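Good day; I would like, with your permission, to put a structural problem before you. A protein sequence and the structure tokens that stand for its backbone fold form the material at issue. The record follows directly beneath this note:
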Amino acid sequence: MTRRIALVIEYDGTGYAGFQRQTNAPSIQEELENAIESLTTVRATVRGAGRTDAGVHAAAQVAAFDTDSGLAAERMVAGLNHYLGEQIAVRAAYDVPQSFDPRRHAKSRVYRYRLLEGGQPSPLRRSVTHRLARRLDEDAMRQAAASLLGEHDFRAFSGTQPQGRTFVRRMTRASVDRDGDELVVELEANAFLPQQVRRTTGALVNVGLGRMTVGEFERMVQSGAQGAAETVLPARGLTLQEVRYAGFPPENDATTTHDKTHESGSP
């Protein structure tokens, strides 16, 4: 009997061409599908909640696939992690209704961009932060970010889109918070446009550096000028932090986590 399994996945996007399968480059989707085939002996198509770009990370991407395997969902966590490389881990697995669609049923996505300010380079954080030589005016950045809230045509912060697609999105949270020597920009919306988070954060950084006023940022939000936010920050600082749903994860099904170990006796 065919079942639908939903996975919560964490990955380091460094070295991958994004979530979606590519013809000539490694992808998270391809790695997951290979692992599922190794575990169940049957090829399956994995559908994700979002198509993270090349180099973008995820703390809790959600994906689903159909299978005839009778293996319990909690056992799939350990089984899939056995076949996945060290940059990808399945944090949880759930049996879900056949109607569950991780992309269409998502209520919102939360993205986080980490900015490392000044000081010396941090090798341990090099792949997950974007370093800036100067401190930023976080109060000005917060003031500018407030203008993002609500429903807007965000084409000023978008990369190229297929003709006829809408640029309207609903932003429910736009925060700028300090965490030691880092500034963390967190955006939550019903959906995001191509490069929207990296362009938006790039414009906020320009406000923080005094290269753009809060008023200029606010006018950019309302401008409707395609790609007006020209600064596209590197992918390495960006993480898909969470995908939110109504009724998922299932209330009566505790999250199953598993530390990946590929050698017996590993901690």
